Amino acid sequence: MTSSPEPGEFLALLSEDEVADLREIGRLRRWDRGATLMSEGDTSDWALVLTSGRVKVSSHTANGNEVVLAIRGPGSLLGDMSVISGEPRSGTVTALEPVEGYVVRDFAGFLNDHGRVAVLLLKLVVGRLRDSDRKRVEYGAFDTTGRVATRLVELAERFGEPSGAAVKIALPLSQDELAGWTGASREAVSKALRTLRDRGLIETGRRRVTIHDLQALRRRAR
């Protein structure tokens, strides 16, 4: 089922006519939870516009450790850099839950025919680079608890559902994946979550987190 695109994501920035043109040249596909949509190192001629569900974008270090680069949701554009540059995929995209999206094979042609969209894509790419720079600063300046708090705030702002004074997040991430997203060990992330629980900021369950004090969590993230 198609979901509303996240604000600021690729699909949310397009006009109704641009969306219609994109869907006309695309093919709707569905993937189950755990499926690999794209593989790091592969070369391919198609991009994907996600219409529902969430995925993780990850890469592996030389010693085999997984590093989670981003979590993407409805409206996200994936695989565009490889299509445009002709270079291999820079990351692996894995479904965190059932997902669907439009596979667009002539994405470069679509951009040639829609100059405004090409400019929008450039702005998105700049935003990704800024986000990457911000995370590198976090890794050097924040402790593990601060980085975990930052990721939880991001998830709450993007995917959280209000529940009274709290915010609930259906978290399709394991602790190993959260560790890969924060640049820390699983043990360090487990300790950070325990610290946040002991302070009454969060409550954790199986693949879910309830944030009881989002403002205090933001302060801890800083």
UniProtKB/TrEMBL annotation:
GO terms for molecular function: DNA binding; DNA-binding transcription factor activity. SMART domains: cNMP, HTH_CRP. It comes from Sphaerisporangium rubeum. The lineage of its organism: Bacteria, Bacillati, Actinomycetota, Actinomycetes, Streptosporangiales. GO terms for cellular component: cytosol. This is CRP-like cAMP-binding protein. Residues 142-215 form the HTH crp-type domain. Keywords: DNA-binding, Transcription, Transcription regulation. Pfam families: cNMP_binding, HTH_Crp_2. Residues 10-100 form the Cyclic nucleotide-binding domain.
